[in-house]
Amino acid sequence: MQKVNLPQVFRKPNKGSFLFFIFYFSFFILLPGCNSSYVPRPTGYFKIDFPQKQYRQFNEPGFPYSFEYPAYATIQRDSSFFGDATENPWWINVEFPQFNSRIYISYKEIGKYTLDKLLNDAFNLTNKQSVKATYINDSAIATPNNIHGMFFKVSGNVATANQFFLTDSTKHFLRGALYFDAAPNQDSLKPVNDFLVADMQHLINTFKWR
Q1: Number of other residues whose CB lies within 10 A of the CB of residue 163
Q2: How would you list the strands of the sheet with 65-70, edge to edge?
Q3: Domains of the chain by residue range
Q4: How far is residue 82's CA from residue 2's CA, in Å, rounded to a whole number?
Q5: Which secondary structure element, helix H or strand E, spans residue 83, and what is its range?
Q6: Please, which residues bridge with residue 94 across strands?
Q7: Which residue pairs, CB below 8 angstroms and at least 24 apart, start in 113-122?
Q8: Alpha helices in 14-110 (DSSP H)
């Protein structure tokens, strides 16, 4: 029988050439993985476009206080507190709809309550967050308008990281707290928190008793 010479591509590979092919193929598959290293990337958040700082006056008839608030916010009367009616008509919310947040403002008269009770309540409401807070920093408030009180900065994933109270020690007591309609996340809320805290400070610095 006549021997037929097959083309090179149809010849059965010998054992040496087959092993060389496997090694060659594996080398180029594994090479990129050997030369690359894992680099963790920080969590990204959406960019937020903040409005320009502009303020208007809140000076409604009958209210025992006045202040300036941002032009990009609205004032809403608060008629209930955890399902119960507010004890007077001077409880309000400074609403920031574009940020899903608000500053709750509650007012109480000294006389109906002792100053000691109102102060203890303010500190206790802040300390309730100590379970999730990494620290609570308080600083005294004293403005050129003769307004005094305390500002609380609560660090951590808490419901309200910024709170304050103002009083004249004889008649008026007001408490404010910044809330977000979102799961507490200190990192993701930080840009908006910082932006609105500046508005809280402006509110306090322009605050007056009437």
Answers
A1: 24
A2: 55-58, 65-70, 208-209
A3: 55-209
A4: 101
A5: none
A6: 75, 103
A7: 113/173, 115/167, 115/169, 115/173, 118/165, 118/167, 118/173, 119/165, 122/150, 122/163, 122/165, 122/175
A8: 15-35
* Beta bridge pairs of residue 154: 136
* Residue 168 and residue 209 in contact, taking contact as beta carbons nearer than 8 Å: yes
Half-sphere exposure of 118 (CA within 13 A, CB side): 24
pLDDT digits (tens, 9 = 90+) for 73-108: 999 998 866 567 888 999 999 999 999 999 999 999
The pLDDT tens digits of the residues spanning 24-80 come to 545 454 555 555 455 555 554 456 789 999 999 999 999 999 999 999 999 999 886
The predicted model scores a pTM of 0.74
Which residue type, as a one-letter code, is found at position 52? Q
Taking Cα atoms as reference points, which of 177, 209, 206, 208 lies closest to residue 70?
206
CB-based contacts of 14-22 (< 8 A; 24+ apart in sequence): none
Q: Which fold has domain 55-209?
A: Protein Transport Mog1p; Chain A (3.40.1000)
Type of residue numbered 108: K
Q: Please name every residue paired with 80 in a beta bridge, in sequence order, or none if there are none.
A: 85
Q: Which of 186, 165, 183, 182 is nearest to 174 (CA)?
A: 165
